[in-house]
Predict the 3D structure of the following.
Amino acid sequence: MSTSQGQKVAVVTGASQGIGAGLVAAYRKLGYGVVATSRSIGDAQDPEIVTVRGDIADADTAERVVDAALQRFGRIDTLINNAGVFVAKPFTDYTDEDFARVTGINVTGFFHITRRALPHLLASGAGHIVTITTTLADQANSNVPSVLASLTKGGLNSATKSLAIEYASRGVRANAVALGVIKTPMHPVETHEALAGLHPVGRLGETSDVVDAVLYLESAPFVTGEILHVDGGQNAGH
């Protein structure tokens, strides 16, 4: 049931910590109802946040997330595909398990939830899909072996453009935010200095840098099919 007439609703994947948690807080501040999902997410204290525990690579999780949004709020306006995993290894060191895990979360997860959310984004009349990708898909770096990231996130960049064009005349926009290295619990503090050196600006990104980029795209009705690089200049060169 919709709680208040016209309240918009955002679905955020990978929502329990780091960038995902920052996005949940930001959309709440905008007045959105939020459905937040991850494998480890706990119950929310805020009645305008519904949490759904599950593996995003599972079609069942996508079903439950979309159902939860419709049951609690009656609509979906924005989907943020934030769940992702990054495994940096020399190509020949990747295992079959690595491949299954990275493609499962990054690609299969994107497919299941985006396909199920899209009819509801169309129904809202001004839907928006934002997918978090990596700048390494455009600008490989010999210091960071990242074939699986490029294989999966590069595909998501292309899929973003394809979705944008397919739905451009029907009120749904699709954009991506391609990241450099962001300071999140994923990166131990002792690695920060080395990681900062990957960026021309010489520092790591902050969660707030990513949130600001997503909120810009949310408020930009003429922007679709955009791959917005939030990467301290990495995409421009080294």
Remarks:
- The mean pLDDT is 95.
- The longest strand covers residues 128-134.
- The radius of gyration is 17 Å.
